[in-house]
Write a structure and sequence with these properties.
Layout: E1 2-3, E2 14-27, H1 29-37, E3 42-43, E4 46-47, H2 48-72, E5 76-88, E6 94-107
Parallel strand pairs: 1-5
Antiparallel strand pairs: 2-6, 3-4, 5-6
Length: 108
C-alpha cells in the first residue's frame, strides 16, 4: 500500500477516489506515569521510552487506516495527515491520541 502526504503523484493518475479513511490509537494515562517513572533513560532532553511508545501508536493508527483502505479496494492513500492530540481527563490524568487520516484511492 502506497502512503503519501501529497495529493498528486507524478506519473500515477488517480483512477478512482474511494473516500476518507482513518485510524486512531490512544495512549492511556498509565503509560505516562510508567514512562516518567523511568526518567533515567532521558538523554539530552529526550526520552527513548516515550518516543518508542509514540512511534508504536503512530504505527497502529497508520495500520488501521491501511486496513480500511484495503477493505475499500484501494492501492494507495493520498493526502495523509498524522495528528497528535492530548485528551485531558477530569481527574488530572490524560491520554494521548494519535490519528491518521487520508484519502483512499486506486492509482493506475
Amino acid at each position: 500500500m502506497l502512503i503519501a502526504t501529497v495529493s498528486v503523484l507524478d506519473g500515477r493518475p488517480v483512477r478512482k477516489y474511494l473516500g476518507l479513511v482513518s485510524g486512531e490509537a490512544i495512549l492511556g494515562a498509565n503509560i505516562f506515569r510508567d514512562l516518567f517513572a523511568g526518567i533515567r533513560d532521558i538523554v539530552g532532553g529526550r526520552s527513548a521510552s516515550y518516543e518508542k511508545e509514540l512511534r508504536k501508536a503512530k504505527d497502529i493508527a497508520l495500520e488501521e487506516m491501511m486496513e480500511q483502505a484495503r477493505a475499500l479496494g484501494a492501492n494507495a492513500i493520498l493526502g495523509v495527515d498524522v495528528d497528535y492530540q492530548e485528551i485531558s481527563m477530569g481527574n488530572g490524568g490524560g491520554m494521548l491520541m494519535v490519528a491518521a487520516t487520508g484519502t483512499a484511492v486506486v492509482l493506475d
